[in-house]
Fold each of these.
Amino acid sequence: MVTEEKKKELLEKLKNAVIQYDEDTAKEGAQEALDIGMNPNEAIFNGLVSGMEEVGRLFEAQEYFVPELLMCADALYAGLDILRPHVQQLDLGVRGSVVIGTVEGDVHDIGKNIVKMMFDVAGFKVYDLGRDVPLDKFVEEQMKTESDLVCLSAMMTTTMSGMKKVIADLRAKNPKVKIMIGGAPVSQDVADKFGADGYAKDANNALKDAINMISSLKKLKEEAEAGKK
Amino acid sequence: MQEHLEKELLQAGATVVGFALLKGALSQEIAHLEYAVSIGVDRNLNEATLRLLRALQKKAAITLRKGGHRYLCIPPDSDRISNTFVSKLYPLFTHKVAATSAGIGWIGRNGLLISPHYGPRLSLATVLTDAPLEVGIPVEASRCGKCGLCVEFCPSGAITGKEWSRYDPFVELIRLEKCSSHKKHVRAVNGKPSCGLCINICPYGRQDNKKKQLEALVIAG
C-alpha cells in the first residue's frame, strides 16, 4: 500500500525534476510512481504538471527564459512518456481532439509545441501538422479527424494573414468547429477581426480556453439532442 | 567549483576544457547564459566520441546544477536529437565561438577550430551557464601564418584561403556549396560521406603516421 508520506515525496520529486529541468530524475520519479502503484493521473497532474505551473510562474516573473522553459518541457515529456501508457482515463470532465499547426511560411514552432504539450498532458487527442503547414491542410485534417478544435499559430505579421483564410475556409466547411489562434503578433483584436473563437496569450491560457470551448461545444450538442426529444 | 569541474571533465576523458565569457556574442534567447564551458575531445567522429561528449556535458551540467547555476547543453553538431523542445535553440549557437573565446584555438583557413596541440582534430560540445567562471584569454586572430596546405589540397577548391580574425568574423573561408557537393559526390562513389582532407593535412597536431598516410594518398592520386 502506498503511504501518504511516500506519495508526497514522489510528487515533490516529479515537480522539482520539471522545475530543475532534470530529465533523468523525471524518468526515475515516474518509474518509481508506477512501481509503488501510484495512480498515474495523480503523478502527472500533481507532480509533473504542478511543476510546469511553477515554471510558468517563473517564466512570467522573468526568472526563467526560453531555454529553461524548453528544457523543463523536455523533462515533463520524459516523465509523461513513462506514465502515459498506464493512464486509463484522464478525468478532466471534457475530452476532445485538436488539430494544431504553424501556418504556411512560418517555421517558428516553439510556442506551438508548448501549447501542444498542454493538450497532450490534458489528454486531448492531438493531430500535430507541424510547421509551415499549407493552408488547405488544416481544413483537410479537420474534416478527416472530425476534431472539435483547430489551433493556428503564427509568429510573423506576414504569415499571420494566412490564418484569416484558414478560418474562413473552416467556417464554410464546418460552422461548428472552434478555432483558436496564437503567436507573437496575435492579439484579441486580431482574433476578433479574423473571426476566431479564441486567442491564447500563452500556453497556459490556451489550455484553459480550449477546455472551456470544448465544454461549451458539448453543452450545445447536449441541448440540441435534448431539444429533439 | 570551477577547478573541480575542469579536473572532473579531464579525468572523465576530455582532451581540452576551456572557459569563456560570451557577452554580446549570443542571440537574445540565450543571452542570459553568458558563460561557456567549452569541451573538446579527440576527433574520431564515431559513436564513442559522441557518447563521451554527451557524458561530459551531463557531468558539467550536474556540477553546475549542484552549485545552483543555470545551464544549457549544446550537443555536438553531429549528434543533435531533433525531437526535443530545446533542440530548436541549438542553431543559435556555434561551438567554435566558445572555443576561440576560451582561448582553445583559432579558426583556420579550413574553417575549423585549430588548437595548437591538437590541430583541427577536436570534436566540440558546449555548456552555457550563468555561473561566473574565470575565463581564458580569447584568441584574436588566425595563427595559420603562410601555411595554405588545406587550400592546396582541397579536392573541390572550396577553401578560399582568406584568414579569420575575431574582428571580421563573417569573411568567407569556405565555399560551402563546393564542399558539400564534393562530399555528396564522394558518398555516391564509395558510400562514405566524409572527405576530411583539410583535417588530415593540417600540420598543427599532425602525427607522423598521418603524414605518411597522406603522402600515400597523394601518390595514389
Amino acid sequence: MTAPANRKRRKLLAAAASTVAAAPGLRLMEWAAAQSDAQPVTAATRWGLLIDTDKCAVDCDACVRACNDEHGLTGTGRPETDAQWIRKVTLTDEHSGRVTSLPVLCQHCEQPPCVDVCPTGASFRREDGVVLVDKHTCIGCRYCVIACPYQARSFVHENLTAQKPYSPRGKGTVEGCTLCVHRIDEERAPACVEVCNSGGGDDCGNGALLFGDLNDPQSAIARRLKSAPSRQLRADLDLNTGVRYENL
Amino acid sequence: MSGGGFFAIPRIISAAIFAPVLAAVVSVNALADGPPKLPRGKGATCVEPLDVMRRNHMDFLNHERDLTVRGGIRGRKHSLVGCIACHAQRDGHGDFIRIDAPGQFCHACHEFTGVKMDCFECHAAVPDTSASHAAAPPFVPPRRGGYGGETRP
C-alpha cells in the first residue's frame, strides 16, 4: 500500500518551506504537519519488525543503548527495577552448544494480552498495530506487566527528571517499546533499527533489524517474510506478533 | 489523569482573575499582589486568541493529547511541546528554566488560582535542545491568520 495521503503532504510541505526562524523544540516537519489536515493512523498499515538472529552479534547491545538514549531510560543502578524496553537474550543449545543472540521487546501483538487485562483502557493497540500505554489513563496496576508473555513492560518506580520532550515518562505508570511512534509518524525508522543498520563507531551495522509495513506486499519486510522462514516467539499463544524472528 | 469536565465550576474562578472587580472578592492577598505578571511568549500571537487561550488551554491540551497518543497526529498548534517551545524562558546564563518552576509561565497563574497539575512529572519542562532534534530545521509560526486556517477539531 502507498503511504497515507497526509504523510505525503507532510513531506511535500516540509520540502517546500525553507525560510524559517528559530524556536527550539519544534521541527519543520511538525510545522508542516500543523498546516495539513492530518488524519489519524489507520489499519491500512501494520508496522512490523523482522529480526535476523544470524546477523545479531552476541556481544552487541547497540540497539539497547540507542533505545535508552532515544527515550532517556537512565539506570538507577538497581537493575531489578530499572525500565528496560529492549533486552538482549542469549540462548545456548544444550546439545550442540550453538549460541544465538536476540533482542526481545514488545512484540506488538495483534491480540495483545496486555490490552485484554487493562482495567482502564490505557493499554491499547493503535490502528496501525503499535501496542502502547496511554500514560494519561494508566493507574499503575501492573496487570499488563504480569499478562505479557514476553516480559516486555516495565514499571516506573521512582521520580524522574530530564525526560525527553518526545518521550514523556513518569513514576507510577507502566511503559514499554513504542516502536518509536514519535519517529515512525514522521517517516523515520525506530532508533534501534537505525543504529542496527548504520555502520561504524559505536554503531552496530549488523543489519539484523528490518522494519516496515506488513500490510504492504511491496515492502522489504513483507517480501522477506514471504520468501524466508521466520518465527513468532511463543507462536503457540496465537497472538500474531508484529515482531518476527529469522534463523531462530 | 484528568478530564475537562471536572473544571466547569473552577473556570468561573479563572474568568474572575481577569475581571478586577471580581478579583477583589476572591482574596485580599491576591488583591495585594495582583494577577501574576507573565513573561511574553515568542512570536506575535498565541495559537488562539488571548482570551480563548486563558480560559480554554486545558481543553485544547486534553484534546490534543488524545489525537497524538491514540491517533498519531503530531506537532499541531495545540501540542504541549509547542507551548513550551514558545513560552519557556532562559536564565542569566542562557539556560532554559523549567516552565513549571515558581513564577514561570505554567506556574504563575496556577499558583494564583490554586490549580495543581501533574503534566511535568512526565513531560519535559524545557524545550528540546538535543543535537538530533535541534539540528533539524527550526519551527516558525506563520504570520497571517494564525496557523494556516486549520479548522479546529
